[in-house]
Amino acid sequence: MLALFKALVLGHLRTNRLRALVTVFAVALGVAIALAIDLANATAVASFASSVNVVSNHVNLQVLGVGRGFDDRTILRVQDVPGVEYATPTIEDALVIGARPKDPFSGEILRVLGVDLLRPIPGQASANVGVPGGIATQANTPDPFELVNGHGAIVSARVAKKWHLQKGHDFKALAGDRLVTVRVSAVLPEGMTGIDSSVVFVDIATAQELFDKVGYLDRIDCVVDPAHLASVQAAVRKVIPPGVRAIEPKVRTGEIRRMLQSFQLNLSALSYIALLVGMYLIYNTVAISVVQRRPEIGTLRAVGALRKQIFVAFVGEGALFGVIGSIFGLGLGAFLAQLSVGAVSRTVDALYVASHADGVTYDPLVLSKAFVVGVVLATLSAVIPAFEAARTQPAISMRSQGFENRSKRLPWIAAFGAAAFFVIAYAFTFVPAIDGIPVFGYAAGLGIIFGTSLLAPAAIAGLSRVCIKLFARNPSGELAAANLGSSMIRNSVAIASLGVAIAMMVSVAILIGSFRTTVVAWADDTLNADLFVRPLGLQDASYDSRFSPTIASTIAKLPGVHAVDTFRGISVPFRDRITTLGAVDFSTVAERNKLRFLDAPDTRAMAQTLPNTNNVVISEPFATRFAMKRGDEFQLDTPGGMQTLHVTAIYNDYSSDAGIFLMDIRTYARLFKDTSINSIAIYANPGVDLADLRTRVLRSVLPLRVDAQTTRELRKLVIEIFNRTFAITYALYVISITIAVLGVVSTLFALVLERRKEIGLMRYLGLRARDVRAMVFYEAGFIGLLGGVGGVVAGVLLALLLIFVINRQAFGWLIELHMPYDFLGEAIALVIVAALLAGIYPARVAARIRTADAVRAE
Amino acid sequence: MHDSLENAPVAVRDARKSYGEGSQAVHALDGVSLTVRAGELVALVGPSGCGKSTLLNLIGCVDLPTSGAVLVDGRNTAALDDDALTALRRDRVGTIFQFFNLLPALTIAQNVALPLVLQKSAKGAKGAALDARVRAVLDSVGIAEKADVYPSQVSGGQMQRAAIARAIVHKPAILLADEPTGNLDTVNGTMVLDMLRRLANGGQAILMATHSIEAAAICDRTIRMQDGRIVA
User: How far is Cα A437 from Cα A431, in angstroms, rounded to an integer?
Assistant: First the structure.
């Protein structure tokens, strides 16, 4: 078997190094992209788990509050529960360092973990300070007095270096809208595993003071006897206040994982397109190998090689590409993950929940999965050409050169297969999502991709026939058109792989364009205040940045201010996921026209019936995710006890696919005992100078630090966040197109080599070198044209699927379709240009073929 | 001439081979019968399209007759499935091609060893003597010194000698040669014919399709074909 493999595969690869390298590179790139995204996704989820483990990996039970937190005396009852071996109070909040006005992305968020720093943590008997990692060295031991009474903090080496901090130095940072001063009591050594570098440790008392949470806790981390976890958990639940949960840490991680599921799955699906394009390239390479080596296969069959031996040899070629490509892909992917993890965590930060992703978490399972997927897909890609090779008749060894089997029926058979794929894909669009995952939607996407790919032979046959007539007086064009039809299978694969990459680009561009237009229209409709005020500093999805309670009333009294609206948001666990509860003043809903309701309810009546009741309105994604409709009821555990909430209306919202439900701010204050707010919308009197009003707002709240933006600035910010969210998508499709163009280079090069004698003969008969070059360029242009048109058609179909099925099922968003016709034309032109560029090297090789050498064997 | 069919390396009885059906049918072979015995060198001559290659394909177990029987080493090829046919070809047939058909990725020795390697792979046999056998055969065709070079590094005559070595290395019952001198100059052609003659003298059954008068002249007998039939 090894001899066969060597005869058919290894030797051939040696003599076709360029194609082998291109294929290995394509596989490596595909595996790398999929791995980079998978690692970024895994890191985002793992960072939540590590934020629990950062205190101690022995913690197996957490008492968690929502919103502003819960009474800190709860810990006295929890630690007295039999079976609780250790319980530490915790505050989790954020400080912003280096923020500048008018730049919401300036500065850095430092995740502050307030714990009992004077208690040794479990598993660290010798430590006199309860910080993990055992930093209490002689040189670095923090002063306990400073930690408790002097706003002492322990920061990471990275943060210390970035912001020029040293032990004993004070630094200023924003806690919400208040400027606070913190002293560096110790610097954590570099490279401490399990501790994110953005985490700052302070004592619990310092944290309560810094974040205006005196008397409150966000959570209690407990270590309990694992053997009696369930009974201890039940006992703890009896002593904690309403609205507070006692759960295992993994429950919370699971909720976050489910919240991010759609976002991460969509990103993964896109990243796997690159791998799919790579598969086409492997298919192409092995298919070309089979065609080029058909006489050798025939010879081997003639001297006794079995069909299955030939089959295994060529499948082995695919596997070899898979193994080598995947090994390189792991290295490249691990590198790219360092870039993607930043992009993914920024989006997670902005849209879902404050994350702690620092370095990449190289999960061996994720690495193994990428390797196995790369090898398996590469091996599978070789199955069809290997089967074709095994069918080779020994009698073919009597011929002097290889050829591609021509079948007049192929275009028809393939077109029939395409029709079948389209019908199945269409049927799949009617099947609902499974547990929120649009499984059949993705399958329909594959159906469209395979269906369009199978149309390639018919398109080639048609174009070839037309162009042979069209170029009757142009030998280069005529020959190229004839060549296109005579190498139907491999040209089909090149066209299909190019088409798939273009389809991805087109579909994502249509989706993003439509989404952006929809979001802009939504922002125009709903952002109708004149100024928006927020605490100075970074904005993320944590709602940690809060205003001081009096600030809204201070602003409301300013001359020129007609009215103010406030918003308070908190993350709440709901049905195994995390969602958002927003508190607004429902009495002004009709007056301000802030929300776009779906079923046109009577907003004037709502203004009368909603305030100070358990009536809520829910966002469209919330309705989709939790299968709710107007008139439904649901239960919510609040600090004010278990509440039944009534769904009064559904509104259009694009701020988060995790869903949001709104209740009246008075109801919220009553149930959650929280009067803080996260943002203020100001409605100015007619004719008021907004720049002047902004200055007055900023001055009126001093020394508190806030930032005020006009509607236009806020809309710009919405689009900026939108563009950042999709930035990684652009990178993904550029890479897919790169792989596809490599496929065109590979195909054209193989065709030139295979037609060496033919080209030599034509040169002998009078074809000039430039005619040969032109012939290759014509063929490249034909491939580009068909790949471009096919890609645009498939892309439009995929866009419809993404907009009306996948996004609807995965995110609950209804996006209005906007077709960018200019872009579609540009895409086709771009592909033709790319294909022509891909033809440069093969054309040069073709033009250099020596006539005498090529025809000598004839 | 038609006796002891089962013992002859090759026996063909009333073999017919048609391509297509009904009025479109082309009869490539039309009732051909012949026997090739051990030690016999038989020339198969006739104009292009007379059915020589089709007959070689049937005897070489790469194709099956439409009717009639083709017995190779006593086994009726029509009764065998693809794997058995492949095994018969691998073990009992050797073929010399006009275009040599050496695998460019393998050295001369590796090319020659292929039938033995394939046998070994299929039967799980020990291959200790494989190298020695290959060297001996290469020596017998006079290219032992070329064992470790690639086909692209030797002359056409040496390539055909390597092809002969590959065809006989597994001691086939029948050696088929399809225009073995068709791609060689006179000197190399003569050398190859001498080699085939010596092999026949040593007991090898050989059936050679050729257009060459010189090649036919060294054979024990000549079978002439025309329009799918044996005419002399």
Answer: 11
pLDDT band at B34 (very low <50, low <70, confident <90, very high): very high
* Structure token digits, residue A55: 């205190």
Which carries the bigger pLDDT value, residue A355 or residue A145? A145
The Cα A31–Cα A50 span in angstroms is: 27
CB of A391 within 8 Å of any CB in chain B? no
d(CA B95, CA B110): 17
Task: Name chain B contacts of A14, Cβ cutoff 8 Å.
Answer: 105
**Residue B192, SS3 per DSSP:** helix
Cα A433 vs. chain centroid, distance in angstroms?
19
Q: CA-to-CA distance for A631 and B74, rounded, in angstroms?
A: 88
Q: Which residue has the higher pLDDT, A830 or A452?
A: A452
Q: Which of A396, A397, A398 to mutate to test the interface with B (most CBs of B within 10 A)?
A: A398
* Angle separating helix axes A711-754 and A840-847, nearest 10 degrees: 20
Q: Is A199 left (phi over 0), alpha (psi -120 to 50) or beta?
A: beta
Instruction: Say how far apart CA A652 and CA A743 lie, in whole Å.
Output: 44
- CB A609, CB A657: distance < 8 Å: no
C-alpha to C-alpha distance for A243 and A66, rounded to whole angstroms:
7
pLDDT digits (tens, 9 = 90+) for A148-188: 777 888 888 888 888 888 888 888 888 877 788 888 888 87
Residues 294-333 of A with CB under 8 A from B: 295-296, 298-307, 309
User: Which among A483, A527, A361 is positioned nearest to A777, based on CA atoms?
Assistant: A483
Q: For residues A102 and A713, what is the distance between their CA atoms, to the nearest angstrom?
A: 9
Cβ atoms A147, A203 nearer than 8 A: yes
Give all strands of the β-sheet with B75-76 in edge-to-edge order.
Answer: B26-36, B10-19, B67-72, B75-76
Of A393-397, A410-414, A457-461, B73-77, the one with minimum mean pLDDT is: A393-397
Q: Which of B103, B110, B121 sits opposite A299 (nearest CB)?
A: B103
CB contact under 8 A, B113 and A3: yes
| A169 CA to centre of own chain | 39
pLDDT band at A447 (very low <50, low <70, confident <90, very high): very high
Q: CB-based burial of residue A471 (10 Å sphere; 0-12 exposed, 13-18 middle, 19+ buried)?
A: middle
Token readout for A219 is: 């959570």
* B171-200: burial string, b at 16+ Cβ within 10 Å, e else: ebbbbbbbbbbbbbeeebbbbbbebbeebb
Task: Give the number of C-alpha atoms closer than 13 A to the C-alpha of residue A472, restricted to the C-beta side.
Answer: 4
Instruction: Look at A291-295, A464-468, A569-573, A784-788 and tell me which has the smallest mean pLDDT.
Output: A291-295
Q: Does A7 contact B at CB distance below 8 Å?
A: yes
What pLDDT shows up at residue A481?
86
d(CA B28, CA B63): 12
**Would the pTM of this model clear 0.80, i.e. be above it?**
no
**Average pLDDT value for residue range A338-353:** 66
User: How confident is the model over A469-482, as a mean pLDDT?
Assistant: 80
Going from the C-alpha of A592 to that of each of A178, A527, A607, A609, A656, the distances in angstroms are: 30, 10, 11, 16, 22
B143 SS3 class: coil
Q: In chain A, whose CA is at the least distance from the CA of B93? A: A303
Which structure tokens are listed for A746? Answer: 């590979």
Structure tokens at A462: 């048609």
C-alpha distances in Å from residue A632, one per residue of A435, A629, B107, B122 = 20, 6, 79, 71
Instruction: Name the β-bridge partners of A564.
Output: A682
Which stretches of A352-455 are DSSP H helices?
Answer: 364-381, 383-390, 410-428, 439-454
pLDDT digits (tens, 9 = 90+) for A703-721: 677 777 787 777 777 777 7
Supply the Cα-derived Rg of chain B in whole angstroms: 17
Alpha carbons A583 and A676: distance in angstroms, whole number: 10
State which amino acid sits at residue A167: K
